[in-house]
Amino acid sequence: MTGSDAPIAFVTGGTGAIGLAVAVALRDAGYRTIAAALSGGTAALPEGIEGRDLDVSDPASIAASLADLSSVSVLVNAAGITAREGREFDPDVFCRIVDINLNGAMRMSMAAHPLLRKAKTAAVVNICSMLSFFGSPTVPAYSASKGGLLLLTKSLAAAWAEEGIRVNAVAPGYIETDLTQALHTHDAHRTRIEARTPMGRWGKPEDVTGAVLFLCSPGAGFVTGAVIAADGGYSAI
């Protein structure tokens, strides 16, 4: 199914490493895929993926990004930021990160809710983190926002189940992305994390996509409120 007949998948943070990998996977699965990100970030997307400007902290931007859509079958909330070097302990920085990572997912979900209802079947997948389960001594805002996103996932799943909208999450472990570059390019940190991960390696963005595709598929038709860890076993021990 292609073109105007294809179900629509909308990915926020669609130019980030994980968001883009998810967008490509959804395109390859037959969705009309929209990858939305901050202005200027969607200029060089792969063929077959539509780019849209989106600021998840701005309700007007969210409304504009959805305005011409008649329905949405899949919403993936992958937009997220962090700050290093202890900056997340600054209350203003803390609030900004929570506003993007957690409030942004809530804004997008509520704005897309009427469009999700119009789809024959609909799925929301939130990109959480292993820090949804663990505290962090260095990135408290990121950890708090992702912990909140996990419980938002469960709350929306319960609220929207009767409408045929399933809401689930994927919690990546240590994945090689721009956000984790300071860790995966540092020999000591990289080795420590590999030693702590049962599968003995860092993940690639593509290691997250299978779980997302499953949660969007008919095979997950009785799955809602679930969180799948894509972390090489890090959270298992």
Descriptive keywords:
alpha/beta, 16% strand, 7 helices, 40% helix, 237 residues, Rossmann fold
Written account of the structure:
Keywords: Membrane, Transmembrane, Transmembrane helix. With 237 residues, the protein is α/β, with parallel strands linked by helices. It has a single domain (3-177, 204-230), classed as 3-Layer(aba) Sandwich (Rossmann fold), CATH 3.40.50. The protein has seven helices and seven strands. The protein has a seven-stranded parallel β-sheet, sandwiched between helices. The chain is globular, with a radius of gyration of 17 Å. The mean pLDDT is 93.
State Rg: 17 Å
Structural class: alpha/beta
Reading side by side through the largest sheet, how are the strands ordered?
3-2-1-4-5-6-7
Averaging pLDDT over every residue, what do you get? 93
Helix percent reads 25-40%
The CATH class assignment is Alpha Beta
> What is the succession of H and E elements?
EHEEHEHEHEHHHE
DSSP strand (E) fraction? 15-25%
Annotate the secondary structure layout:
Blueprint: E1 8-12, H1 17-28, E2 32-37, E3 49-53, H2 59-66, E4 74-77, H3 91-118, E5 122-127, H4 140-160, E6 165-172, H5 181-184, H6 187-196, H7 206-216, E7 227-230
Parallel strand pairs: 1-2, 1-4, 2-3, 4-5, 5-6, 6-7
Helix pairs in contact: 1-7, 2-3, 3-4
